[in-house]
């Protein structure tokens, strides 16, 4: 069925139409029970259009997308229905990008306006679909290459969108990025850093959510350190990290810190072109994950110390964990 065009805004003064205003409010209400570091920071943004766009894209990328995964990670009953739901989700994003949201879905009306207002490309939605399809198939990363490819697909896509919203400067009717800014390059390393910290902090917790036991840590690394998903489960209550687990976590931390240092360097180089408000939030984002990783290092990666950090990190939504308040089945 052909989608009708929704009236996105009043062009003369760039004010939101009543319909679009209501659509954005609906997204905001939908996220009331969600408490994550990234979302809580977005709630404090002073610019209402920037804040609204954040809510609309967050609903799509961090709530609706992972809900397409099979149970217990999402709502789909099977792999087939999961892949079908993911395709429907990405198709809807394409239509929103074309300015053709379904007129009866507030989340799509809001997303279409956000995409047009902030000149957001549809590519991140396509990349996230690839990453989530791998999770739906229950495919553990075999090596470091597949691990970093998954990281880029799962967290770089949302990161690009959120940083574009955060760093755009207001124009006449649209928000624009400085031509010299490469959003993909600028968001890559901070996003991968956060992903690695999320995988490290959730190393035990995610084992409880899999039908077939495997870890998001590359199998290549587990084998190198004489570990497996099954042996990881046996370590979770240890007060001191065994030597092989300690060396594994030190390897993961080393990868993370390299991305952190590179990310800070890239953001520093672009600082003159980034609005001061954006620099504040990007600093806070990086510091949040840096503190968690440093605390785990101070605890010498004692397995029992992980419980206080698991389950609350932003990448867990990207990893496909069902968000609270959404229990219906994907049809």
Write a structural description.
The longest helix is centred in the C-terminal third of the chain and has 27 residues, at 243-269. The protein has one domain (17-171, 185-210, 219-318): Farnesyl Diphosphate Synthase. The chain has helices spanning 18-30, 37-42, 48-64, 79-97, 106-117, 123-136, 144-167, 183-201, 219-224, 229-235, 243-269, 276-298, 315-318; strands at residues 9-10, 15-16, 169-170, 175-176. The chain is built from 13 helices and four strands. The strands form two sheets. It has a two-stranded antiparallel ribbon with strand order 1-2. The chain has 331 residues and is an all-alpha fold. Helices cover 58% and strands 2% of the residues. α3 crosses α5, α6 (123-136) packs antiparallel against α7 (144-167) and α8 (183-201) packs parallel to α12. A hairpin with a 4-residue loop joins β3 (169-170) and β4.
Kindly identify the CATH topology.
Farnesyl Diphosphate Synthase
Weakly predicted, low-confidence segments: 1-12, 315-331
Q: Characterize the overall form.
A: globular
Q: What's the domain count?
A: 1
Helical coverage, percent range: 55-70%
Percent range for β-strand residues: under 5%
Largest sheet: 2 strands, antiparallel
CATH architecture, please? Orthogonal Bundle
Question: Could you say which structural class the secondary elements and strand pairing correspond to?
Answer: mainly alpha
Strand order of the largest sheet: 1-2
Instruction: Give the SSE string.
Output: EEHHHHHHHEEHHHHHH
Any idea of the CATH class? Mainly Alpha
Question: Mean pLDDT across all residues, rounded?
Answer: 86
| C-alpha end-to-end distance | 18 Å
Instruction: Name the CATH homologous superfamily.
Output: Farnesyl Diphosphate Synthase
**Count of helix runs:** 13
Give the total of beta strands.
4
Radius of gyration: 20 Å
């Amino acid at each position: 069925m052909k989608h009708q065009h929704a009236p996105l805004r009043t062009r003369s003064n760039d004010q939101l139409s009543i319909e679009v205003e209501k659509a954005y409010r609906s997204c905001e209400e939908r996220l009331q029970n969600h408490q994550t570091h990234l979302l809580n920071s977005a709630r404090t943004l002073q610019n209402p259009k920037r804040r609204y766009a954040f809510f609309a894209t967050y609903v799509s990328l961090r709530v609706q997308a992972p809900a397409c995964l099979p149970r217990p990670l999402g709502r789909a009953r099977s792999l087939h229905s999961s892949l079908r739901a993911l395709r429907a989700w990405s198709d809807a994003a394409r239509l929103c990008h074309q300015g053709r949201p379904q007129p009866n879905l507030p989340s799509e009306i809001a997303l279409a306006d956000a995409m047009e207002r902030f000149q957001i490309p549809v590519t991140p939605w396509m990349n996230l679909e690839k990453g989530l399809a791998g999770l739906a198939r229950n495919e553990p990363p075999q090596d470091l290459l597949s691990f970093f490819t998954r990281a880029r697909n799962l967290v770089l896509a949302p990161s690009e969108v959120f940083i574009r919203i955060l760093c755009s400067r207001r124009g006449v009717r649209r928000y624009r990025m400085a031509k010299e800014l490469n959003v993909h390059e600028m968001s890559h390393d901070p996003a991968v850093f956060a992903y690695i910290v999320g995988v490290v902090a959730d190393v035990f917790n995610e084992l409880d959510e899999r039908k077939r036991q495997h870890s998001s840590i590359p199998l290549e690394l587990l084998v190198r350190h004489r570990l497996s998903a099954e042996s990881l489960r046996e370590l979770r209550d240890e007060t001191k990290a065994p030597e092989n687990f300690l060396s594994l976590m030190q390897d993961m931390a080393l990868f993370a810190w390299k991305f952190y240092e590179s990310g800070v360097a890239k953001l520093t180089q672009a600082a003159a072109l980034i609005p001061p408000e954006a620099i504040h939030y990007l600093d806070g984002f990086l510091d949040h994950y840096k503190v968690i990783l440093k605390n785990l290092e101070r605890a010498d990666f004692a397995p029992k110390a992980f419980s206080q950090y698991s389950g609350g990190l932003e990448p867990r939504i990207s990893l496909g964990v069902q968000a609270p308040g959404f229990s219906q089945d994907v049809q």
